[in-house]
Amino acid sequence: MSPAAEFQPELTEEQVAFYRKNGFLSIARITTDEEVAWLRGLYDQLFGERTREEEGGYFDLAGPRAHAGREVLPQVLGPERRFPELRETLYFRNARRLAAQLLGLPEEQVNGGGHMILKPARYGRETPWHQDEAYWSPELIPQSLSVWLPLDPATVESGCMQFIPGSHREEVRRHRHIDHDPTVHGLVTDDVDASQAVPCPIPAGGATFHHSRTLHYAGPNTSERPRRAYILVLGGPPLKRDNPMPRPWQDEEREALAKLPSLAAPRPSG
Hints:
There is one protein chain. This protein is 21% helix and 25% strand. The protein has helices at residues 13-22, 33-49, 79-82, 90-103, 248-258, and strands at residues 24-27, 58-60, 74-77, 111-119, 127-130, 140-150, 161-163, 176-177, 187-188, 198-200, 207-211, 216-218, 227-240. The chain is α+β, with helices and mostly antiparallel strands. Strands 1-11-6-13-4-3-2 form a 7-stranded antiparallel β-sheet.
């Protein structure tokens, strides 16, 4: 169990208004240093074990599935399945409460799960521009956001989050797979003006929030330390679309992985 003492950050009306206008928000603290240190231990164990790799729960987000080379953006999906106590942390409880406030939903309607992304020191690859909703069901309209917690100081050099203000008010853009390879799960959109980007460097234990349609990016890690991040996707019940939205990149991935019978498509996570 997390050793952290009780800690409950609050959002101001100005912060909520900023999020709803811009589609993202950065805060300096969502949990304690003690809990961050404890989370690092679990995080390193999950990546060291390559947790649930045989089920598609561990893979290189920026590389072809099951490649034998150096991993540049490894990811663990659903870490709470290995460590259920993650759902009892200050981070999870605070993230859920603040997400409900930003979404304008009762807290009891908000739930979700997490994934973890590692950018190794000096060679961790960029997470290219994308919208999380591009990974998800084309039949649903999510009422959700992502909460991004760095377990190391997140700087521009190490790959902090960057956002395009107001992009959450637009539709999901055309995406493709990284390197035009449908066996790579990671997505990228070329329909973005990166000159509008707002970098959000934050300390370990801080957090960013972003809407499921907000265009976002995290640069390569050129620093001397790893950039460890634990992301929660939280929201209320999604709405059903009258007509599914075409997402051909999802079809391309399913078809490519079907030719690799030992592999299952990973659960879309953004």
